[in-house]
Design a protein that fits this description.
By secondary structure, the protein is α+β, with helices and mostly antiparallel strands. Helices cover about 35% and strands about 15% of the residues. The strands form two sheets. Strands 2-3-4 form a three-stranded mixed β-sheet. Helix 5 runs antiparallel to helix 6 (about 140-165) and helix 6 (about 140-165) packs antiparallel against helix 7 (about 170-175).
Amino acid sequence: MLPDSFGDRYRLATDRDVHASSFGRVERRRAPAGSTWREQVKTLEDPRIFGPVREFECACGKYVGREHDTALCDMCGVKLGPAELRRTRCGHIDLPMAVPHPLGQAKDRLGSVTVLPASFLEAPSGNELAVIYEGLVVAREEREIAVGLQRLTEILLPTLQVADDWDLSDRRLIARGVGLVDRADEESWELDR
């Protein structure tokens, strides 16, 4: 159930919300260390989804330097920019079936999950998140998926509580990772339409 303290500020995310905030679908487990950019496609390490690993340099090395800022490499598909992009760009995992939202009621179901930006996964404690995401990529049974989503919620909900209490800039990203949408974002989006 959605904690009372979050009810006024957040609502449960829909699959449409998840896809709207995503820069690409994660479909495979991570490639072994030392793999090429081609082996990283559609994994948690895909720079096309999460942004360039090195500032203003695409994955294949064809374009390097600030003069190529915002360019999209025609070979590897990476949009060049600052490494800070890896703090803002989310991916998503399409689940093989919709399952009950860990913070909702039985009728509230999720068919997609937001994958937090690469900088969260690259943080010292981010490996646990990466393991859960990879488990969701390969899960095929409803119980496996539900357990993975529950574990993700157990990890991220306390973090969201702190980020929300302190009004940290990453709170909206963390909320997406828990399957929530900030109502203020929704209102500003409606005003822009």
